[in-house]
Every structure is written in structure tokens, then in C-alpha cells.
Amino acid sequence: MLASQSLSFRQLKLHITKAGVLFLLIVGVMLFGAVNYRNNLGHLFSFLLISLGLLSMIHAYRNLLKLSIRIEPAEAVFVGHPAYFKVHIDNPQNRAYYAINIQWQQQKPYSLDIPPQQSNAIDIAIMTKTRGKFQPKEFLISSIYPLGFFQVEYRYKTDVTVIVYPKASKDSTTHLASQASQSDQGKLQEGMDDFMGLRNYHPGDPLKYIHWKALASSDNVLIKQFGGHQIQQLWIDWDQTPPTDTETRLSYLCRWLLDADQEQYQYGLRLPNKVIHPDSGEHHLHRCLQALALF
């Protein structure tokens, strides 16, 4: 997460809006008519409108000045799902900020108000289209408050990234089942006599198998494993995928990893450029899926 950036006057850029151009044209016509007909009331009203426009410009700057902005990186997602980047805007002033717009590229902007000396946050959803590392690069922070004649903006550059996993194949193959059916390969054998070691806790595991001494000395919840024979390992291998294009093969591997994790197997991953040794748990699954994403 990046450190907060406090907006200064030099960082802000001012643009006149379409409403502002129309406002200037109307004031210009009124002022021309007042000069042409020597109408004092017309002069007074024209200069009143001009001062209103100048005040609007000052307040537009003021509505972004000294705000602090920071952003949190999004959690990993699968291709085709939105990544959510949380943008925090902190208001250290004793006045409120109104109609602050946050936008990424051409998406519809998000708008929020920030009370005095408080913070507000909003999740920016960005649809992912390709696997790998995705970096949004910059967000547009802007405001047209109070009258909409001027837009003050700041382009917030960021280096936060999100890992985008490959899309899991929808093909319900029997590959995983056939590999695991040989002596329950890699399957956790519980409820037998021989202590086989420890593994991470999975929802639904019996409480009687929790290793309470390990829990007392750390935050990790571990489960004791028992079995009557040595646990064999399940390998998910690139060479076992159908010989098609790279993305399709990664899609199959992604599906097999998710199935192996759901069935609580101990599994490893073999890619042409990387080998991840068998293990289980959420962290291990993320590590394997990340290897597919960055392949």
C-alpha cells in the first residue's frame, strides 16, 4: 500500500467545463450589451456574474486542496472477474469536502463526500481480461464543485498490482479422480492409528484432531494426521494436459488445482519452468495459482 499523498496547489490542474464555456458566453453577451447601450444595471449584473465565476474557480481548487489519498492493492482474482482497489481519502481539515469523483480510465466515476476530520473509502471495480500482473497505473481524482463551471483534477499515479489467475476450465474431466484413485493418492487419511504429521486446518475438520499445544504457541491452527500407510503425493503436471495452446493448458491446470484443494489432497505442481512441491492449504493453493498466472 502506498503512503498517503497530500494534494498541493501545484499538483492540481484546472479545466473549464462545457457549462463554464456557456456561462462565459452568456456573461460576454450581457457585458457587450451593457457597454453598447450604456446600461449601468447591465454592467453591475455582468460584473456580479464574473465575480461569481471567479469565486467558483477558487472553491473548485479548495475542494481538493490538502486531501490525503492512499490506495490498497486488490486481492488476487480469476480472469473475467473484477479486481477491487480500495481508495482511501482522508480529510484532515475542519471543513467538509463535497462531490469528490474517483475514476479509472473511461469507467463511470464514483462520487463521495468527506465530513470534517474524517476519512472515506470506496472500492473501484476494474474488470480483468488477461492473466498475470495487472497494474491500473493511475486514477483520476476530480471535482466540479460548487457550480460545475470548472473541473479541478489530480492524476493519482500508483504502482499497486493484482495477480490475475487463469480462467479455470469448465470441462469436468476425470483426470484428478483417476490420479487419486490409486490408493487414495495424496488423500488425507484420518481416524487411524499411526501419527503421520501435521497439516493446516480446513473447515469441517474434527476438533479432536487439533494440535492444541501448537495453537498455544502460534496463531496457526494445525491438524494431526493419522494413517495406516505412507501418504503418497498427487502431482499436477503440465505434461498431463491436452496438447493445445498455452492458455487452454493453464486453464486445465487451474481446474485441477481447485479440485485438488477442494478434495483436501496434498498436491504439487510441475510446470516447464517451475516445480512446487506437494503441500495443502490456502497459501499453497495461492502459490500454485500465482505460478500459473505468471507463467
Regions with little confidence, pLDDT below 50 for 5+ residues? 180-193
Superfamily (CATH H level) name of the largest domain:
Immunoglobulins
| Residues in helices, as a percent range | 25-40%
Query: Secondary-structure element order, as H and E?
Result: EEHHEEEEEEEEEEHEHEEHEEH
Strand order, sheet with most strands: 2-11-10-6-7
Report how far the terminal alpha carbons are from each other: 25 Å
Report the major sheet: 5 strands, antiparallel
SS strand fraction? 25-35%
CATH class placement of the largest domain = Mainly Beta
Structural class: alpha+beta
- Quickly give the CATH architecture of the largest domain: Sandwich
CATH topology of the largest domain: Immunoglobulin-like
Number of helices: 6
Averaged pLDDT, please? 83
Shape: elongated
Rg over CA atoms, rounded to whole Å, is 30 Å
- How many domains, in number, for the residues? 2
